[in-house]
Design a protein that fits this description.
The structure holds two protein chains of two kinds. Helices cover 0% and strands 57% of the residues of chain A. By secondary structure, chain A is mostly beta strands. Chain A has no helices and eleven strands. In chain A, the strands form two sheets. In chain A, strands 2, 4, 5, 6, 9, 10 and 11 form a seven-stranded mixed beta sheet that branches. A four-stranded antiparallel beta sheet of chain A has the order 1-3-8-7, with no helix packed on it. Chain B is mainly β. In chain B, the strands form three sheets. In chain B, strands 2, 5, 6, 10, 11 and 12 form a six-stranded mixed beta sheet that branches. Chain B has a four-stranded antiparallel beta sheet with strand order 3-9-8-7, with no helix packed on it. Chain B has a two-stranded antiparallel sheet with strand order 1-4. The N and C termini of chain B lie far apart (41 Å). Classes of the chains: A mainly beta, B mainly beta. The A-B interface holds A 6, 32, 34, 42-44, 46, 49, 51, 57, 90, 92, 94-97, 99-108, 110 and B 32, 34, 36, 41-46, 49, 51, 89, 93, 95, 97-102, 104-107.
């Protein structure tokens, strides 16, 4: 069966510090991968999506970036965090092809920027 | 573009009450429809899905029917439990979108009291 992992689970970082969040998927190959952010009490904001290595698109321009160094690894980064980067970051995967493209989510990373 | 509208919360009800969460969508094609549930501090879990008109998705006592004529996918449960307290998200995917992106509603918080 497929599983998706995210780490760290929680992170407290000062403004201006760098960020690296990691997501890995097991049990499937060539998945579509997604990064979302959820601010407190708010809905989901799609940040990045990828259909393969070196095929990453950004939904919202900001000081975050994403990379996919391996087929089942997706990394969210920032060189300098802002207070507004605080939130709950969710990684998700879906099958690369199929009828319905349902996404499966990881447990999330709670980021607090101080 | 495609969009999803769901009723605002919070929805507060007593244990064993009937739950309905309204969801309507706008789509140019023939989307697949989903309900996700998010328990406090966790990622989203796929609750149920429907891929074509008149399909009924069901899981854990929850049901939703894909109504093309009313562009709706309302979530229902006949007798809620305290453990059903969560945020529920309606979502759609466009099967012609090879990136597999989902459009989410804003989420509806459900609070079930004993």
């Amino acid at each position: 069966s497929q599983t998706i992992h995210q780490w760290p689970a929680t992170l407290v970082q000062p403004v201006g510090s760098p960020l690296s969040l990691e997501c890995t998927v097991e049990g499937t190959s060539n998945p579509n991968l997604y990064w979302y952010r959820q601010a407190a009490g708010r809905g989901l904001q799609l940040l990045f999506y990828s259909i393969g290595i070196d095929q990453i698109s950004s939904e919202v321009p900001q000081n975050l970036s994403a990379s996919r160094p391996q087929d089942r690894q997706f990394i969210l980064s920032s060189k300098k965090l802002l207070l507004s980067d605080s939130g709950f970051y969710l990684c998700a995967w879906s099958a690369h092809s199929g009828k319905s493209y349902e996404q499966y989510f990881g447990p999330g990373t709670r980021l607090t920027v101080t | 573009g495609d969009s999803v509208t769901q009723m605002e919360g919070p929805v507060t009800l007593s244990e064993e009450a009937f739950l309905t969460i309204n969801c309507t969508y706008t789509a140019t094609g023939y989307p697949s429809l989903f309900w996700y549930v998010q328990y406090p501090g966790e990622g989203l879990q796929l609750l149920l899905k429907a891929t074509k008109a008149d399909d009924k998705g069901s899981n854990k006592g929850f049901e939703a029917t894909y109504r093309k004529e009313t562009t709706s996918f309302h979530l229902e449960k006949g007798s809620v439990q305290v453990s059903d307290s969560a945020v529920y998200f309606c979502a759609l995917s466009d099967r012609t979108d090879s990136w597999g992106k989902l459009q989410f509603g804003a989420g509806t918080q459900v609070v079930v009291t004993p």
